[in-house]
UniProtKB/TrEMBL annotation:
Cross-referenced CDD domains: RF3
Lineage: Bacteria, Bacillati, Bacillota, Bacilli, Lactobacillales
Name of the encoding gene: prfC
A molecular-function term among this protein's GO annotations: translation release factor activity, codon nonspecific
The name this protein goes by in its record: Peptide chain release factor 3
Residues noted as binding GTP in the record, renumbered to the chain: 19-26, 87-91, 141-144
Amino acid sequence: MGFDQQKEVDRRRTFAIISHPDAGKTTITEQLLLFGGAIRNAGTVKGKKSGNYAKSDWMDIEKQRGISVTSSVMQFDFQGKRVNILDTPGHEDFSEDTYRTLMAVDSAVMVIDSAKGIEAQTKKLFQVCRMRGIPIFTFINKLDRDGREPLDLLEELEEVLEIDSYPMNWPIGMGKGFEGLYDIYNNRIEIHRPDRFDGERFLPLNEDRELEIDHPLKEQSIFSQVMEEVELLLEAGNEFSEEKIAKGELTPVFFGSALTNFGVETFLETFLQFAPKPSEHETKDGGEVSPYDKDFSGFVFKIQANMNPAHRDRIAFVRICSGSFEKGMEVKLARESKKIKLNNSTQFMADSREIVEEAVAGDIIGLYDTGTYQIGDTLFTGKNKIEFEDLPQFTPELFMKVTAKNVMKQKSFHKGLYQLVQEGAIQLYKTYLTEDYIIGAVGQLQFEVFKHRMLNEYNTELIMEPMGTKIARWIDPSQLDEKMSSSRNILARDRFDQPLFLFENQFAMRWFADKYPEVELKTLL
Ligand code: GDP
């Protein structure tokens, strides 16, 4: 047999990389895949210019725009660990999808452009990680270019994100004068472009942080300057604490350059030491499921239709929380207490689908879906029903009225609408009085993808009437009164039949709150 479940769980590391677009997430992902032997050549993951699209770029629209719309899963082994990287779309319009992916990981790596610092999207994604209390590791990228002062960047990180930081390494110069990194954690110097010197990549330091061997770097004033700076930094700064890292209260910070592949390997090695293995998951009834439990359990965090035009199917992505997955096993769907035989599963290196052999807690499996699953569904085996907590929904800000252009297409219109909503591609509402369909999104591009997919996958041309931005607020069904509805605060219901108002603007919402002070207005997240 040779299959030791506990050992397998303990070597899993499942994480996502979060960043603002262009910070270098794709470049660093590619480097990590190279180290793991998952790909052989740089440029495989994304070559916007060369026309080689990312392994994770599946859909037409992604290719047209050169952006990554969907999340995918990449798996490789490195130094005995089995690493699962969950890709997250960088474009801000797809943050909803990104947020959900963050529900399925055990830690996050935040990539920051050293010239730009904390950007809008980084901040939003960081907050979701914070809400989950997962460890966050920071990689400050593009040190081969002139950027901001390292100290300045750490200060901004602490102030804007309200998290303590600990520098794992410190840059020696930057841009053209980038000499290398003082690797604080391993107490050694990592030389940038060692070919300029004697070829030695790492220079060890003694206990007093002195370079004992002769090296041209020693003579450079930047070297002694940096060593003094670090001395001060370590005296005045936060203490290294594994416990605080685990709780997401302290972020270890690494500097480097993904493009020149500098500092990435050391980052990966150190990150894998401190990144958590899969842990317990909470259930709706307040219980906990251990990753070592023999019974299988997992939840659907993403559903995607027709990722590859060659395979016209839907895939439900399941994060395994306990037990092990075996092909052909029978599981129960908590929502319906229904039994399902899992004949087909695919595990991803994006377009080349490999059949899963052994998958345990921390792994992601992709299941072929013919409309069985919904976002947030729990699958389990064993006598005791397991139902994990609901995944958060995110409050949309943009709305459109939708109808099918051709009245004869009602059937496929409803089918597409229903399936894409279930996938979480878009949110759906129906007005109370007129029963119009309204779709809601976090960003404009989500509508375009929706329209494109309705046409290509469901053969339905849509008429979409923009309603602009609205403020969505949910109310308690017991306080519902249709008389409260007007053109400036449209009453609608969501797909769970919960009532909400779509307010025209802040002013309309305040007016409403003054008029009906007893009605509590709630957001999703
Ligand atoms: P993403 O949008 O976060 O996935 O960013 P990409 O990985 O696509 O990188 C955006 C741009 O920054 C590309 O042109 C990269 O070549 C460039 N880039 C990424 N990492 C570095 C780096 O370390 N140094 C420099 N100079 N450029 C980089």
